[in-house]
Amino acid sequence: MIGGGTGDWDVPVGGMGRVSAELERAAREAGAELRTGATVTAVTAGGEVALDSGERLHGRLVLSGVTPAVLQSLLAAGGEETPDAAGISIDDGVIRPEGAQLKVNMLLRRLPRLRDESVDPHAAFAGTFHINETLTQLDAAYATARDGGVPDPLPAEIYCHSLTDPSILGPDLQAEGAQTLTLFGLHVPHRLVAEHGVTREELLAAARRSLDSVLAEPIADCLYTASDGTPCIEARTTADLEDSLGMTGGDIFHGTLSWPWAEDDEPLETPAQRWGVATAFPRVLVCGSGARRGGAVSGIGGHNAAMAAIERLG
């Protein structure tokens, strides 16, 4: 299904920000009120949402895009009995969501030369570039991470979105030949940072070593520099995601993923149940990656919550 059946890695012209911008435009044109910087402190089964400003909002439905674990805590703050309310019960033996990735964003002056000189970097980076991901390397990395260490070499995958869609860069950067690189380091579970004290700098260094192992030159030599002279590279750990976005354990999938269809024994009496976005409370729906039939970066959870809301409210 990728690329409309072509296999092409299609991305929105202008970058992913164009998607959220169009959602905002359509919502405002439809009369929606959008708020930013409004921290939710509690949610009730009756559709009441409390903000840290003291304001209380009321809705026929509440759609939650936060992780099920966060939703459970908000329901508890609203005075609701919450075991399994959001599909999980942290205190009853369900494993707390835990991400296991490091994300590194880079802006380059040019693509780096590869150790294998027979391969054109523009061809190599045009798809998913796998680094140190043989089966034995993945097994070894898993064992190291399980025991509290940082894998070395760190398995990683790289994407160069600017090769697919140059429009994500401004005209000046395009003219200079600049490129973006996004690296995902694997087998770096949240516990490494949260329990074993591994720092962002240590993880970034491991990622750079892994990348450099397949290059004919250090990636540092290709990094773009900002006006203040700092290299254009940043790392985001699971702890960063938990702190800045409220993603429990830095899990970008909000928990264990499930198949996007209903099992034979699932209750399907309500629209929310049929669309896989139900909680224990009929007026509270899940619209994020933690939906029963959603997850990953599919957008299915949001689509299904909207369909359930339309079906219920008519």
Please name the defining characteristics of this protein.
2 domains, alpha+beta, single chain
Descriptive notes:
- By secondary structure, the chain is α+β, with helices and mostly antiparallel strands.
- The chain folds into 2 domains: 35-95 and 251-313, no CATH class; 101-246.
- It has helices at 17-29, 68-77, 121-124, 135-146, 161-164, 171-176, 190-194, 200-212, 238-245, 271-275, 300-313; strands spanning 40-43, 48-51, 56-58, 62-64, 101-108, 129-131, 156-159, 179-186, 233-236, 284-286.
- It is globular, with a radius of gyration of 22 Å.
- It starts with 16 loop residues before the first helix and ends with a helix.
Oligomer: single chain
- The share of residues in helices is 25-40%
Series of secondary-structure elements, N-terminal to C-terminal = HEEEEHEHEHEHHEHHEHHEH
Number of DSSP-assigned strands? 10
